[in-house]
Automatic annotation (TrEMBL):
Lineage start: Bacteria, Pseudomonadati, Pseudomonadota, Betaproteobacteria, Burkholderiales
A UniProt-annotated Pfam family: MerR-DNA-bind
Gene Ontology annotations for the cellular component aspect, listed alphabetically: cytoplasm
Places the protein is found: Cytoplasm
Domain named HTH merR-type: residues: 23-89
Keyword entries, A-Z: Cytoplasm, DNA-binding, Transcription, Transcription regulation
The protein's name: Cu(I)-responsive transcriptional regulator
GO molecular function, one term: DNA binding
Entry annotated with the keyword Transcription regulation: yes
């Protein structure tokens, strides 16, 4: 009695690359668009990219690694300024990890403040939706609020609820 096994699916492999590579290949390998690569270069996050005699950008493995670092940092919500700081720390092998932790802790604080502000916005919208009849009547408190001349100030988390 012979047993047959399901055919194996080929392992997903990234094709071998001959370095340096063009912007499209670098972007694909880093998981970003070519447009973002150019943007990061313009901000100085990816300095010193070489060019061919024809003026085309060429990227080496270290450049692609840097692009991945930037992408992961963006995925975690770091600002471009914070990413520039983190890149400098990453490339400085003599840096103290306390500096990196300080940047991350400041980012966490910023995220917490943004979460509170978003929760305030959510509560305001929920109140407006609750007040809107959502029927055939033309009056709508949501539109009235959006059209009001009153400047909406999200209350801080230290202020008491109305």
């Amino acid at each position: 009695m012979t047993t047959t096994s399901a055919p194996r699916s080929p392992a997903v492999r990234t094709p071998p690359v001959r370095w340096p590579v063009a912007i499209g290949v670098a972007a694909e390998r880093a998981g970003v668009s070519a447009r973002m690569v150019r943007h990061y270069e313009s901000l100085g996050l990816l300095p010193g990219v070489s060019r061919t005699d024809s003026g085309y950008r060429q990227y080496n493995e270290a450049d692609v690694h840097t692009l991945r670092f930037i992408r992961r940092s963006r995925d975690l919500g770091f600002s471009m300024e914070e990413i520039a700081t983190l890149l400098g720390l990453w490339k400085d092998k003599e840096r103290a990890s306390a500096e990196v932790k300080k940047v991350a802790q400041a980012h966490i604080l910023n995220l917490s403040e943004r979460i509170v502000a978003m929760q305030d916005i959510q509560r305001s919208l929920q109140t407006l939706v609750h007040c809107c009849h959502g029927d055939e009547r033309p009056d709508c408190p949501i539109l009235e609020e959006l059209a009001s001349e009153q400047i909406a100030h999200p209350r801080s988390h230290s202020e008491p609820a109305p």
